[in-house]
From TrEMBL:
Classification via Gene3D superfamilies: MetI-like
Species this protein is from: Streptomyces cinnamoneus (Streptoverticillium cinnamoneum)
InterPro entries noted in UniProt: MetI-like, MetI-like_sf, UgpAE/MalFG_permease
Similarity remark: Belongs to the binding-protein-dependent transport system permease family.
Protein's UniProt name: ABC transporter permease
ABC transmembrane type-1 domain: residues covered: 87-440
Pfam short name (any one): BPD_transp_1
GO CC aspect terms: plasma membrane
Cellular location(s): Cell membrane
Residues spanning the membrane: 31-52, 91-111, 123-144, 320-340, 366-393, 421-441
Record key words, sorted: Cell membrane, Membrane, Transmembrane, Transmembrane helix, Transport
């Protein structure tokens, strides 16, 4: 056993590189790093820093750019009705669109995890991301078309509606003038005098569409039946002219399926529906009553919902946005779900948790970082939404669907050009985005620190 003696030299350790005056520990020269960073810094300055600085500067001047107005443009941002509507719609966008898209993405990712065709389903859901905003806007402008023969949304809606509520048999039809029927409110028509049993009643109608009466039988006069009220409903029109008004002429068509009600003292005492030859028969209770043709016989055909009207235009456009971006959320969440330890899920099931409890108490908390990334990304994206609103919203509803990015464009390059106000909106939009970006950066830093 040897001992170190005083004054003896210590054994030499591994050589440690020393920093030189030209660079750091790895010998990197500062000017070399600057040469690599300079192009990126130049692009960052030209494309980001300069536009932001100029927008702030320009927002302090009037429309001409010569008169200094200070914060006058910012005051207009908060007092102009159009801009306030745009701000309100942006709040709706930020709250609804990211939340719904993320929720759908989470549901799709979880439900397709264990099915064979999950990959194919994810591909179909993600495909809208490959479509530009312009193309998506054109597609959904047609989807939301008011005419059910052109708009898919209203075609489905009208189909469902007509399944549970039969359409009127003769929309737009009405009695012949001086034909014994008068309007009685709400679109209904009532005989001007009471009817008597044993005497047939004539109820002539006009303005029946040819397609509604196509294939109908020829009308025949109703027979007088003792103790009962009878009558005929027909289209009092002879092709080519001629015929006698109020009388059933040859080749005049019967109107089948017309509901006829007998009304006494404001109460319906009997009702019947006209047969294929236009005739109807009411029981003796109808004696002395007035006959009423309800408005349901003549109501206009149901044409669906005004998706792009002032009330629903913003939710409709948000629906188009979710159609595009739910796939983006699903892919990111599915990637995060693939990294979730299966042992934790199985342990929860062994402990007696059902699938809903496993999803709510284990899966969602483990996916919280991924969900935060998706929500923040979509929030930043919807604050800049422009294309879909500009393309989908018709001119009559554009004001109601307005958002800040669209108003920025209209104020800067629209009919009332004022780039001072447009720049103020741009700065305000930047201030709205900044907190979201800051929160995202802090979250990323915390994740990095947690991994160390």
């Amino acid at each position: 056993m040897s001992t170190a003696t005083p004054g003896a030299a210590a054994p030499a350790g591994p050589a440690v590189p020393k920093a030189t005056g030209r660079g750091g520990a790895l010998g990197t020269r500062p000017w070399v790093a600057a040469c690599f960073l300079l192009p990126a810094l130049a692009l960052l300055g030209a494309l980001v820093v300069y536009p932001i600085g100029y927008s702030v500067y320009r927002s302090l001047f009037d429309a001409s750019g010569d008169g200094f107005v200070g914060f006058g443009n910012y005051q207009e941002v908060f007092t102009d009705d159009r801009i306030r509507t745009a701000l309100k719609n942006n709040v709706v966008w930020v709250i609804v669109a990211p939340a719904v898209a993320t929720a759908l993405g989470l549901i799709f990712a979880v439900l397709t995890e264990r099915v064979r065709w999950g990959t194919a389903f994810k591909l179909v859901v993600f495909m809208p991301m490959a479509i530009s905003m312009l193309a998506a806007g054109i597609i959904f402008r047609l989807v939301y078309e008011q005419d059910p023969d052109r708009g898919v949304a209203n075609a489905v809606w009208v189909g469902v509606h007509d399944t549970f509520a039969a359409p009127a048999p003769y929309p737009g039809a009405h009695p012949r003038p001086n034909g014994g029927l008068a309007a009685s409110g709400g679109g209904a028509f009532t005989t001007t005098s009471p009817v008597r049993a044993g005497a047939a009643v004539a109820l002539p109608l006009v303005a029946v569409k040819p397609e509604d009466a196509g294939g109908a039988k020829e009308a025949i006069p109703a027979r007088d039946v003792g103790g009962k009220v009878t009558g005929t409903v027909w289209m009092d029109f002879t092709r080519g002219g001629g015929g006698t008004a109020g009388k059933i002429d040859a080749e005049e068509k019967a109107l089948a399926g017309v509901r006829v009600e007998a009304v006494k003292d404001g109460r319906t005492v009997a009702s019947a529906t006209s047969a294929s030859d236009g005739t109807f028969t009411l029981p003796p209770a109808a004696d002395g009553a007035r006959l009423r043709l309800p408005a349901s016989n003549f109501a206009s055909a149901y044409n669906g919902v005004d998706w792009l009207g002032p009330t629903l235009v913003t939710p409709s456009i948000i629906g188009a946005y979710i159609w595009m971006w739910a796939g983006f959320a699903m892919v990111l969440i599915a990637a995060g779900l693939a990294s979730v330890p299966r042992e934790l899920l199985e342990a929860a099931r062994v402990d007696g948790a059902n699938e809903w409890q496993v999803f709510r108490r284990v899966t969602v908390p483990l996916l919280a970082p991924v969900l935060a990334v998706v929500v923040v990304t979509l929030m930043i994206n919807v604050l800049k939404i422009f294309d879909l609103v500009y393309i989908i919203a018709p001119g009559s509803s554009l004001h109601d669907a307005n958002v800040l990015a669209l108003q920025l464009y209209q104020s800067s390059f629209g009919t009332d050009v004022n780039q001072g106000v447009g720049s103020a909106i741009a700065v305000f939009l930047l201030l709205l985005v900044t907190p979201v970006v800051v929160v995202n950066i802090r979250r990323i830093r915390k994740e990095r620190e947690g991994r160390r």
